[in-house]
Amino acid sequence: MNTMAPTLSRPTESRPTESRPTELQACRVRLTPGPAAPAEARGQVRAAVCAWDLPVDLDVAVLLTSELVTNAIRHEAGGSVTVAIRCAGGRLRVDVHDSSRFLPVPADAPVEAETGRGLMLVAALAQEWGCYRTPGGKVVYFTLAFQPR
Length: 149
Prior knowledge:
- This protein is of the alpha+beta class.
- It has 3 helices and 5 strands, in the order E-H-H-E-E-H-E-E.
- The protein has helices at residues 37-51, 58-76, 118-125; strands spanning 25-30, 81-88, 91-98, 128-134, 137-145.
- A 5-stranded antiparallel beta sheet has the order 1-2-3-5-4.
- The longest helix has 19 residues, at 58-76.
């Protein structure tokens, strides 16, 4: 596992504390392949949101991260998955990189289905979400806008 701790930027004693982070904060984590990856990603997002003191719904950020990483692990067939977490411009963005070239398609899952609703949750709860191909595969991402404190 390659883990990069979130970059912290704290105001000094001589400056007043700002109510919202104004500087770019970012970290990137290559996840351990396998069923533990979603939990690892949830922990990384939770740590970043708390360390950076971001005014977002932590439960939603963790849930959406888990959904995207679970999809990447399930459909990736053993390749690498990386999570990039950043905040800038009044929002949190989480990107999930994997080596699959197939873009996700939201499913119309029946009510009794045990799977298939992850992207519907992402679409319903994120400010924005999307996906795009990269030279090494694809990225699926979501953003959450900062909430008033």
